[in-house]
Amino acid sequence: MVSARFRVQVTVMCSRCLSMFESPLSLDLQEEFLSDPAVNIPLAPGEEPFVITKGRELDLDEAVRQYVSLEAPLKSLCRPRCAGLCPRCWRNLNHESCVCSLVEAVN
Ligand SMILES: [Zn+2]
């Protein structure tokens, strides 16, 4: 039985301006690793058991990868008040401004 607490940095895309940024993520991992994959324990359909390698190594890579993909935020912002992209010229309004809204106001 593996019980571990991880703190990782994941790269996620801002749902407003589409820029990539690093976000901290805390994970509580609890998994059973089998020394013999033939051991009959009940598994959900399609579920692959974690196994201890032939060299008696506990390889956590796949377990951590699965936890990260489940826990990574689907919608997050790169900053609390992300200005997003201009819907007309697609400029990132966090870094530059455009005159699209002014042009629209004049017309
Ligand atoms: Zn953003």
Protein model, in words:
This protein is α+β, with helices and mostly antiparallel strands. The protein has one domain. The chain is built from two helices and four strands. The chain has helices at 61-71, 100-106; strands at 2-13, 20-31, 33-34, 50-51. A two-stranded antiparallel sheet has the order 1-2. It starts with a strand and ends with a helix. Zinc ion is lined by residues 14, 16-17, 19, 77-78, 82.
Largest sheet: 2 strands, antiparallel
- Our measurement of the CA-to-CA distance between the termini, rounded to an integer number of angstroms, reads 67 Å
Q: Identify low-pLDDT runs.
A: none
Describe the oligomeric state of these chains in a short phrase. Answer: single chain
Q: What coarse outline follows from CA principal-axis ratios?
A: elongated
List the ligand species: zinc ion
Strand order of the largest sheet: 1-2
- Judged by helices, strands and strand pairing, the structural class is alpha+beta
Number of strands: 4
- Total domain units: 1
Beta-strand proportion: 25-35%
Mean pLDDT, all residues: 88
Name the helicity range: 10-25%
SSE string: EEEEHH
* SS summary, helix count: 2
In short:
The chain is α+β, with helices and mostly antiparallel strands. It has helices spanning 61-71, 100-106, and strands at residues 2-13, 20-31, 33-34, 50-51.
In terms of topology, how is this protein built?
Elements: E1 2-13, E2 20-31, E3 33-34, E4 50-51, H1 61-71, H2 100-106
Parallel strand pairs: 3-4
Antiparallel strand pairs: 1-2
The protein binds zinc ion (ZN).
Keywords, separated by commas or semicolons:
107 residues, alpha+beta, two-stranded antiparallel sheet, two-stranded parallel ribbon, 2 helices, 4 strands, 26% strand, binds zinc ion
